[in-house]
Amino acid sequence: MRQHVDANRVIDLTKALVAVDTRNPPGNESPIEGVVRDALDRWRPRWTSVEPAPGRLSLVAELDHPDGPDADRLTLIVNGHLDVVPVNASAWTHDPFDPRVLDGRLYGRGSADMKGGIAAAVCALEVLDRAGVPPACNLVFHLVADEERGGRLGTQTLLEQGLIHGDACLVPEPTDMQLCIAERGLLQARILVEGRPGHGSRPREGVSAIEHAAQLVLALHAADFGDVEHPLLGRPTANVGTISGGTTFNTVAESCVIGLDRRVLPGATEASTEVEIRKLIEGAGIDGLRYEFDLDTFGEASEMAATDPWVKQVGEAVGRATGRQPGIIGMTFTTDARFVRNQARIPTVVCGPGAVEQAHGNDEFVSVESLVDATAAFAELMAAYG
Protein backbone atom coordinates (compact mmCIF):
# COMPACT_ATOMS: atom_id res chain seq x y z
CA MET A 1 0.00 0.00 0.00
CA ARG A 2 2.85 2.36 0.70
CA GLN A 3 3.46 3.11 -2.97
CA HIS A 4 -0.09 4.43 -3.20
CA VAL A 5 0.30 6.98 -0.38
CA ASP A 6 0.19 10.60 -1.54
CA ALA A 7 2.38 12.32 1.05
CA ASN A 8 1.25 15.77 -0.07
CA ARG A 9 -2.37 14.82 0.49
CA VAL A 10 -1.87 13.68 4.08
CA ILE A 11 0.28 16.75 4.75
CA ASP A 12 -2.40 19.04 3.35
CA LEU A 13 -5.19 17.43 5.37
CA THR A 14 -3.12 17.54 8.57
CA LYS A 15 -2.43 21.22 7.92
CA ALA A 16 -6.12 21.94 7.33
CA LEU A 17 -7.06 20.30 10.63
CA VAL A 18 -4.25 21.96 12.59
CA ALA A 19 -5.11 25.40 11.19
CA VAL A 20 -8.46 25.34 13.00
CA ASP A 21 -8.01 26.48 16.60
CA THR A 22 -9.79 23.91 18.78
CA ARG A 23 -8.11 24.59 22.09
CA ASN A 24 -9.67 22.96 25.13
CA PRO A 25 -10.12 24.81 27.37
CA PRO A 26 -12.08 26.86 26.50
CA GLY A 27 -13.45 24.13 24.21
CA ASN A 28 -15.02 24.76 20.81
CA GLU A 29 -14.77 22.02 18.20
CA SER A 30 -17.59 23.21 15.94
CA PRO A 31 -15.36 25.40 13.67
CA ILE A 32 -13.56 22.28 12.41
CA GLU A 33 -16.76 20.64 11.16
CA GLY A 34 -16.35 21.87 7.58
CA VAL A 35 -12.82 20.46 7.25
CA VAL A 36 -13.92 17.08 8.59
CA ARG A 37 -16.98 16.85 6.37
CA ASP A 38 -15.03 17.91 3.28
CA ALA A 39 -12.40 15.24 4.00
CA LEU A 40 -14.93 12.40 4.20
CA ASP A 41 -17.84 13.48 2.01
CA ARG A 42 -16.58 11.69 -1.12
CA TRP A 43 -17.40 8.38 0.65
CA ARG A 44 -21.01 9.53 1.23
CA PRO A 45 -21.10 8.83 4.97
CA ARG A 46 -24.21 8.93 7.09
CA TRP A 47 -23.47 11.77 9.48
CA THR A 48 -24.60 12.04 13.07
CA SER A 49 -23.82 15.28 14.92
CA VAL A 50 -23.73 15.34 18.71
CA GLU A 51 -23.44 18.66 20.55
CA PRO A 52 -24.12 18.27 24.29
CA ALA A 53 -23.01 21.85 24.97
CA PRO A 54 -22.70 24.85 22.63
CA GLY A 55 -19.75 24.37 20.28
CA ARG A 56 -18.79 20.98 21.74
CA LEU A 57 -19.34 19.07 18.53
CA SER A 58 -18.62 15.40 17.85
CA LEU A 59 -19.26 13.77 14.48
CA VAL A 60 -20.00 10.14 13.67
CA ALA A 61 -19.46 9.19 10.02
CA GLU A 62 -20.70 5.75 8.93
CA LEU A 63 -19.27 4.94 5.51
CA ASP A 64 -21.21 2.90 3.00
CA HIS A 65 -19.24 -0.14 1.84
CA PRO A 66 -18.57 -0.25 -1.94
CA ASP A 67 -20.15 -3.71 -2.11
CA GLY A 68 -23.31 -2.65 -0.30
CA PRO A 69 -24.65 -3.69 3.10
CA ASP A 70 -23.73 -7.06 4.58
CA ALA A 71 -24.85 -8.03 8.06
CA ASP A 72 -21.90 -10.41 8.43
CA ARG A 73 -19.24 -7.82 7.62
CA LEU A 74 -17.19 -6.64 10.60
CA THR A 75 -17.17 -2.97 11.60
CA LEU A 76 -14.00 -1.04 12.40
CA ILE A 77 -14.25 2.17 14.41
CA VAL A 78 -11.64 4.92 14.08
CA ASN A 79 -11.84 7.21 17.11
CA GLY A 80 -9.95 10.50 17.09
CA HIS A 81 -10.32 13.70 19.10
CA LEU A 82 -10.56 17.11 17.48
CA ASP A 83 -9.63 19.22 20.50
CA VAL A 84 -6.09 20.26 21.40
CA VAL A 85 -4.44 21.59 24.54
CA PRO A 86 -3.79 25.31 25.09
CA VAL A 87 -0.61 27.00 23.88
CA ASN A 88 1.82 29.63 25.06
CA ALA A 89 2.25 31.15 21.60
CA SER A 90 5.18 33.34 22.67
CA ALA A 91 7.21 30.18 23.39
CA TRP A 92 6.70 28.81 19.87
CA THR A 93 9.06 29.47 16.97
CA HIS A 94 6.09 29.91 14.64
CA ASP A 95 2.35 30.50 15.00
CA PRO A 96 1.00 27.20 16.41
CA PHE A 97 -2.10 27.43 14.17
CA ASP A 98 -0.18 28.28 11.00
CA PRO A 99 1.15 24.77 10.23
CA ARG A 100 4.26 24.41 8.13
CA VAL A 101 6.71 21.72 7.05
CA LEU A 102 10.38 22.24 7.86
CA ASP A 103 13.12 19.63 7.52
CA GLY A 104 10.64 16.78 7.19
CA ARG A 105 8.54 17.80 10.18
CA LEU A 106 5.03 19.26 10.17
CA TYR A 107 4.78 21.78 13.00
CA GLY A 108 1.61 23.00 14.69
CA ARG A 109 -0.56 22.47 17.74
CA GLY A 110 -2.30 19.12 17.37
CA SER A 111 -0.02 17.86 14.60
CA ALA A 112 1.03 14.90 16.76
CA ASP A 113 -1.86 14.88 19.23
CA MET A 114 -3.76 13.88 17.20
CA LYS A 115 -4.84 15.59 14.01
CA GLY A 116 -2.02 13.91 12.07
CA GLY A 117 -3.41 10.52 13.09
CA ILE A 118 -6.91 11.49 11.99
CA ALA A 119 -5.58 12.71 8.65
CA ALA A 120 -3.67 9.47 8.12
CA ALA A 121 -6.79 7.39 8.79
CA VAL A 122 -8.86 9.45 6.34
CA CYS A 123 -6.14 9.37 3.69
CA ALA A 124 -5.92 5.59 4.07
CA LEU A 125 -9.31 5.47 2.32
CA GLU A 126 -7.79 7.29 -0.65
CA VAL A 127 -4.91 4.81 -0.69
CA LEU A 128 -7.39 1.96 -1.00
CA ASP A 129 -9.09 3.75 -3.89
CA ARG A 130 -5.80 4.23 -5.73
CA ALA A 131 -4.82 0.61 -5.09
CA GLY A 132 -8.20 -0.61 -6.34
CA VAL A 133 -8.73 -2.52 -3.09
CA PRO A 134 -12.03 -2.11 -1.21
CA PRO A 135 -12.02 -2.16 2.57
CA ALA A 136 -12.73 -5.60 3.99
CA CYS A 137 -14.86 -4.09 6.75
CA ASN A 138 -17.47 -1.48 7.43
CA LEU A 139 -15.88 1.75 8.64
CA VAL A 140 -17.12 4.27 11.18
CA PHE A 141 -15.24 7.43 12.15
CA HIS A 142 -15.82 8.96 15.57
CA LEU A 143 -14.33 12.47 15.47
CA VAL A 144 -14.93 13.75 18.93
CA ALA A 145 -14.76 16.67 21.31
CA ASP A 146 -13.29 17.07 24.77
CA GLU A 147 -10.75 14.23 25.02
CA GLU A 148 -8.18 16.60 26.49
CA ARG A 149 -10.50 17.32 29.43
CA GLY A 150 -11.62 13.75 30.06
CA GLY A 151 -14.03 13.05 27.20
CA ARG A 152 -17.27 13.73 29.06
CA LEU A 153 -18.58 15.93 26.22
CA GLY A 154 -17.19 13.67 23.50
CA THR A 155 -16.76 9.91 23.45
CA GLN A 156 -18.59 9.53 26.76
CA THR A 157 -21.60 11.28 25.26
CA LEU A 158 -21.50 8.98 22.22
CA LEU A 159 -21.46 6.04 24.62
CA GLU A 160 -24.39 7.37 26.64
CA GLN A 161 -26.41 7.97 23.47
CA GLY A 162 -25.81 4.41 22.23
CA LEU A 163 -23.72 5.48 19.24
CA ILE A 164 -20.70 3.21 19.75
CA HIS A 165 -21.12 -0.03 17.81
CA GLY A 166 -18.38 -2.09 16.21
CA ASP A 167 -16.15 -5.12 16.38
CA ALA A 168 -12.77 -3.40 16.81
CA CYS A 169 -11.47 0.12 17.33
CA LEU A 170 -8.34 2.00 16.30
CA VAL A 171 -7.35 5.19 18.14
CA PRO A 172 -4.55 6.91 16.17
CA GLU A 173 -2.99 8.79 19.09
CA PRO A 174 0.79 9.32 18.83
CA THR A 175 2.60 6.08 19.73
CA ASP A 176 5.40 6.04 17.13
CA MET A 177 3.27 3.32 15.54
CA GLN A 178 3.73 1.04 18.55
CA LEU A 179 0.71 -0.89 19.82
CA CYS A 180 -0.70 0.52 23.04
CA ILE A 181 -2.97 -1.96 24.81
CA ALA A 182 -3.05 -0.47 28.31
CA GLU A 183 -3.25 2.97 29.86
CA ARG A 184 -3.43 4.44 33.30
CA GLY A 185 -6.54 6.08 34.65
CA LEU A 186 -6.66 9.45 36.34
CA LEU A 187 -8.26 11.29 39.18
CA GLN A 188 -8.06 15.07 39.27
CA ALA A 189 -9.26 16.89 42.35
CA ARG A 190 -9.02 20.15 44.23
CA ILE A 191 -8.16 19.94 47.90
CA LEU A 192 -9.53 23.00 49.70
CA VAL A 193 -7.58 23.64 52.88
CA GLU A 194 -9.23 25.81 55.53
CA GLY A 195 -7.35 27.96 58.02
CA ARG A 196 -8.16 30.75 60.48
CA PRO A 197 -7.15 34.29 59.56
CA GLY A 198 -5.02 36.46 61.83
CA HIS A 199 -2.63 39.39 61.72
CA GLY A 200 0.50 38.67 59.74
CA SER A 201 2.68 40.00 62.55
CA ARG A 202 1.33 37.30 64.89
CA PRO A 203 1.18 34.21 62.62
CA ARG A 204 0.79 31.63 65.38
CA GLU A 205 -2.43 33.22 66.58
CA GLY A 206 -4.06 32.17 63.32
CA VAL A 207 -4.00 28.91 61.39
CA SER A 208 -2.32 29.22 58.02
CA ALA A 209 -4.09 27.32 55.27
CA ILE A 210 -1.00 27.85 53.14
CA GLU A 211 1.25 26.22 55.72
CA HIS A 212 -1.05 23.20 55.91
CA ALA A 213 -1.33 23.06 52.13
CA ALA A 214 2.46 23.12 51.84
CA GLN A 215 2.65 20.14 54.17
CA LEU A 216 0.04 18.38 52.04
CA VAL A 217 2.09 19.02 48.91
CA LEU A 218 5.07 17.33 50.54
CA ALA A 219 2.89 14.40 51.56
CA LEU A 220 1.19 13.92 48.19
CA HIS A 221 3.53 14.98 45.41
CA ALA A 222 5.34 11.96 43.92
CA ALA A 223 4.12 9.93 46.89
CA ASP A 224 4.50 6.17 47.10
CA PHE A 225 1.03 4.71 47.57
CA GLY A 226 2.42 1.20 47.83
CA ASP A 227 1.09 0.04 44.47
CA VAL A 228 2.35 -3.11 42.80
CA GLU A 229 4.18 -2.39 39.55
CA HIS A 230 2.23 -3.07 36.35
CA PRO A 231 4.27 -4.71 33.56
CA LEU A 232 3.28 -2.05 30.99
CA LEU A 233 2.22 0.90 33.15
CA GLY A 234 4.73 0.87 35.98
CA ARG A 235 3.68 2.39 39.28
CA PRO A 236 1.04 5.12 39.32
CA THR A 237 1.88 8.68 40.20
CA ALA A 238 0.61 11.72 42.08
CA ASN A 239 1.34 15.27 40.94
CA VAL A 240 0.38 18.48 42.69
CA GLY A 241 0.07 20.77 39.69
CA THR A 242 -1.46 23.95 41.13
CA ILE A 243 -1.61 25.87 44.38
CA SER A 244 -3.45 29.08 45.18
CA GLY A 245 -4.24 30.72 48.49
CA GLY A 246 -4.24 33.69 50.81
CA THR A 247 -5.40 37.26 50.31
CA THR A 248 -2.61 39.64 51.36
CA PHE A 249 0.97 39.55 52.59
CA ASN A 250 0.03 40.66 56.09
CA THR A 251 -2.84 38.26 56.79
CA VAL A 252 -2.59 34.63 57.86
CA ALA A 253 -4.13 32.69 54.99
CA GLU A 254 -7.70 31.62 55.59
CA SER A 255 -7.85 29.26 52.60
CA CYS A 256 -5.64 27.53 50.06
CA VAL A 257 -6.43 25.19 47.18
CA ILE A 258 -4.11 22.62 45.66
CA GLY A 259 -4.80 20.73 42.44
CA LEU A 260 -3.93 17.04 42.46
CA ASP A 261 -3.50 14.71 39.50
CA ARG A 262 -3.37 11.05 40.50
CA ARG A 263 -2.75 8.35 37.86
CA VAL A 264 -4.06 4.88 38.67
CA LEU A 265 -3.82 1.29 37.48
CA PRO A 266 -6.53 -1.01 36.09
CA GLY A 267 -8.97 -2.01 38.79
CA ALA A 268 -8.92 1.30 40.68
CA THR A 269 -12.28 3.00 41.06
CA GLU A 270 -13.23 6.58 41.80
CA ALA A 271 -14.17 5.59 45.36
CA SER A 272 -11.06 3.50 46.03
CA THR A 273 -8.77 6.22 44.65
CA GLU A 274 -10.36 8.91 46.83
CA VAL A 275 -10.06 6.65 49.88
CA GLU A 276 -6.33 6.09 49.34
CA ILE A 277 -5.71 9.83 48.89
CA ARG A 278 -7.64 10.68 52.04
CA LYS A 279 -5.74 7.98 53.92
CA LEU A 280 -2.43 9.53 52.90
CA ILE A 281 -3.63 13.02 53.82
CA GLU A 282 -4.86 11.97 57.22
CA GLY A 283 -1.70 9.98 57.85
CA ALA A 284 0.51 13.00 57.18
CA GLY A 285 0.25 14.13 60.81
CA ILE A 286 -0.79 17.73 60.09
CA ASP A 287 -2.10 19.07 63.39
CA GLY A 288 -5.46 20.84 63.08
CA LEU A 289 -5.84 20.17 59.36
CA ARG A 290 -9.28 20.96 57.91
CA TYR A 291 -9.92 20.26 54.26
CA GLU A 292 -12.51 19.39 51.64
CA PHE A 293 -11.96 17.00 48.74
CA ASP A 294 -13.55 18.31 45.51
CA LEU A 295 -13.43 15.78 42.68
CA ASP A 296 -13.04 17.32 39.21
CA THR A 297 -12.45 14.34 36.88
CA PHE A 298 -12.15 10.59 37.11
CA GLY A 299 -11.27 8.30 34.24
CA GLU A 300 -10.62 4.64 34.91
CA ALA A 301 -7.61 2.77 33.58
CA SER A 302 -8.02 0.22 30.81
CA GLU A 303 -6.17 -2.68 29.28
CA MET A 304 -6.66 -5.60 26.92
CA ALA A 305 -4.83 -8.86 26.40
CA ALA A 306 -1.72 -8.79 24.23
CA THR A 307 -2.93 -12.08 22.76
CA ASP A 308 -6.17 -10.58 21.44
CA PRO A 309 -6.48 -11.21 17.67
CA TRP A 310 -7.06 -7.48 17.06
CA VAL A 311 -3.62 -6.65 18.49
CA LYS A 312 -2.06 -9.17 16.11
CA GLN A 313 -3.94 -7.75 13.11
CA VAL A 314 -2.89 -4.18 13.81
CA GLY A 315 0.70 -5.29 14.33
CA GLU A 316 0.75 -7.22 11.07
CA ALA A 317 -0.63 -4.22 9.16
CA VAL A 318 2.03 -1.92 10.63
CA GLY A 319 4.71 -4.51 9.81
CA ARG A 320 3.58 -4.77 6.17
CA ALA A 321 3.55 -1.01 5.76
CA THR A 322 6.82 -0.17 7.48
CA GLY A 323 8.90 -3.35 7.38
CA ARG A 324 9.21 -3.13 11.17
CA GLN A 325 7.30 -5.17 13.71
CA PRO A 326 5.85 -2.79 16.31
CA GLY A 327 6.25 -3.33 20.01
CA ILE A 328 3.50 -3.59 22.60
CA ILE A 329 3.38 -0.71 25.06
CA GLY A 330 1.34 0.93 27.80
CA MET A 331 0.65 4.63 28.27
CA THR A 332 1.07 6.53 31.51
CA PHE A 333 -1.81 8.81 30.54
CA THR A 334 -5.48 8.34 29.64
CA THR A 335 -7.24 8.38 26.25
CA ASP A 336 -10.77 7.86 25.00
CA ALA A 337 -9.85 4.22 24.36
CA ARG A 338 -11.02 3.50 27.90
CA PHE A 339 -14.67 4.16 27.03
CA VAL A 340 -14.52 1.78 24.09
CA ARG A 341 -12.60 -0.94 25.95
CA ASN A 342 -14.31 -0.76 29.31
CA GLN A 343 -17.91 0.25 28.67
CA ALA A 344 -18.51 -0.69 25.00
CA ARG A 345 -16.44 -3.90 25.42
CA ILE A 346 -14.82 -3.46 22.01
CA PRO A 347 -11.14 -4.45 21.48
CA THR A 348 -9.22 -1.19 21.08
CA VAL A 349 -5.62 -0.56 20.07
CA VAL A 350 -4.05 2.89 20.29
CA CYS A 351 -1.57 3.28 17.44
CA GLY A 352 -0.66 6.37 15.48
CA PRO A 353 2.00 8.65 14.02
CA GLY A 354 4.17 10.93 16.08
CA ALA A 355 5.77 10.70 19.50
CA VAL A 356 4.01 11.24 22.79
CA GLU A 357 6.97 13.40 23.80
CA GLN A 358 5.70 15.96 21.27
CA ALA A 359 2.17 16.01 22.63
CA HIS A 360 1.31 19.17 24.61
CA GLY A 361 4.80 20.66 24.10
CA ASN A 362 6.04 23.84 22.46
CA ASP A 363 6.81 23.54 18.72
CA GLU A 364 4.79 20.33 18.54
CA PHE A 365 5.47 18.38 15.35
CA VAL A 366 4.86 15.12 13.55
CA SER A 367 7.34 13.81 10.99
CA VAL A 368 6.18 13.48 7.41
CA GLU A 369 7.65 9.97 7.31
CA SER A 370 5.49 8.90 10.26
CA LEU A 371 2.39 10.31 8.56
CA VAL A 372 3.19 8.25 5.47
CA ASP A 373 3.85 5.16 7.60
CA ALA A 374 0.55 5.56 9.39
CA THR A 375 -1.44 6.14 6.23
CA ALA A 376 0.00 3.00 4.64
CA ALA A 377 -0.50 0.94 7.81
CA PHE A 378 -4.11 2.04 8.22
CA ALA A 379 -4.81 1.21 4.59
CA GLU A 380 -3.32 -2.26 5.11
CA LEU A 381 -5.50 -2.67 8.17
CA MET A 382 -8.71 -1.58 6.45
CA ALA A 383 -7.98 -3.90 3.54
CA ALA A 384 -7.39 -6.92 5.78
CA TYR A 385 -9.81 -6.61 8.71
CA GLY A 386 -12.89 -8.56 7.84
Could you characterize the architecture of this molecule?
The chain has 386 residues and is of the alpha/beta class. It contains nine helices and 16 strands. Helix 1 packs antiparallel against helix 3 and helix 3 packs across helix 9.
| Number of E strands | 16
Number of domains: 2
Q: How many angstroms separate the termini?
A: 17 Å
Strand order of the largest sheet: 1-2-6-3-7-15
Major sheet details? 6 strands, mixed
- Poorly predicted segments: none
Query: What name does CATH use for the topology of the largest domain?
Result: Aminopeptidase
Shape field? elongated
Category by helix and strand content:
alpha/beta
How many helices? The count is: 9
Task: State the CATH class of the largest domain.
Answer: Alpha Beta
Radius of gyration: 23 Å
Residues in helix, %? 25-40%
Strand content bin: 15-25%
The name of the CATH architecture of the largest domain is 3-Layer(aba) Sandwich
The whole-number mean of residue pLDDT values reads 97
Task: Describe the secondary structure blueprint for this structure.
Blueprint: H1 7-18, H2 33-40, E1 46-50, E2 58-63, E3 75-81, E4 100-102, E5 105-107, H3 111-131, E6 138-144, H4 155-160, E7 168-171, E8 179-183, E9 185-194, H5 209-220, E10 238-245, E11 255-264, H6 270-282, E12 290-299, E13 302-303, H7 309-322, E14 328-331, H8 337-343, E15 348-350, E16 365-367, H9 368-384
Parallel strand pairs: 3-6, 3-7, 7-15, 8-14
Antiparallel strand pairs: 1-2, 2-6, 4-5, 5-16, 8-13, 9-11, 9-12, 10-11
Helix pairs in contact: 1-3, 3-9, 7-9
